[in-house]
Amino acid sequence: PPRTASLPASPRLRRVETPPFSVVDEGTAYCISMAIPGVRTADINAVLDEHTMHLVGETKRRLGVSLVKARVNRRIELPADADCESEALLLTHEDGVLNISVPKRARRQRRLRIVTPPTGSTRDAHLTRTSHTHVTHITHAHATRTSHAHHTHVTRSTTATLTRAPPLPEPLVEPLASA
Predict the structure, then answer these.
(1) Between 160 and 60, the higher pLDDT residue
(2) C-alpha span between 176 and 168 (Å, rounded)
(3) pTM of the model
(4) CB neighbours of 123 closer than 8 A, spacing ≥ 6?
(5) How many CA atoms lie within 13 A of 56 on its CB side?
(6) Per-residue pLDDT averaged across 93-99, rounded?
(7) How many CA atoms lie within 13 A of 81 on its CB side?
(8) Right CATH number for 13-103 from 2.60.40.10, 3.50.50.60, 3.30.420.10, 2.60.40.790?
(9) CB 38 within 8 A of CB 59
(10) Is the pLDDT of residue 39 over 80?
């Protein structure tokens, strides 16, 4: 019978899975932690699209005859009140743990000033338009909730004033007489 040479053992591919992540609401920020064992910091790519963070990374290492591949491929939906535009958004990776700190948006309170429309009589029986300037005071609460910054925002708007309409004409059809 023909003899066949034995092939050398092929390296095995072993996959390292990442566990789920945890999210903690710390009042002024969300802290997200996930273990990514074996993935080097330089191999992690983080992209933020609106309120969705996508983390992708892969590190390959030879361990004897085995090839060890560690990777992450996660999509994280951030809460609606997360301030994704903040410069304080921070990702740190140390000892196989990725920590993400996402500040919350400062809660906005608006104090509105109520104005009295200018007095004046309109004798015409139609819709007249008058222009008013309204001043809106906007208060932004800082994340520390200990100090407030006050800003004044002036907007221009048009208010419609409806004046008294003329009386309706009498009906042209007489009511039916009862028999």
Answers:
(1) 60
(2) 21
(3) 0.51
(4) 163
(5) 3
(6) 94
(7) 12
(8) 2.60.40.790
(9) yes
(10) yes
**CA 30 – CA 88 distance, rounded (Å):** 12
Higher-pLDDT residue of 135, 173? 173
Query: How far is the CA of 163 from the CAs of 18, 52, 122, 128, 169, in angstroms?
Result: 70, 52, 7, 8, 18
Spans of all domains in the chain: 13-103, 108-117+126-162
The tokens 């710390």 sit on which residue? 26
What per-residue confidence (pLDDT) applies to 133?
A: 41
The pLDDT assigned to 169 comes to 57
Amino acid at site 140 = H
Distance CA 84, CA 46 (A): 13
Q: What was the pLDDT predicted at 153?
A: 40
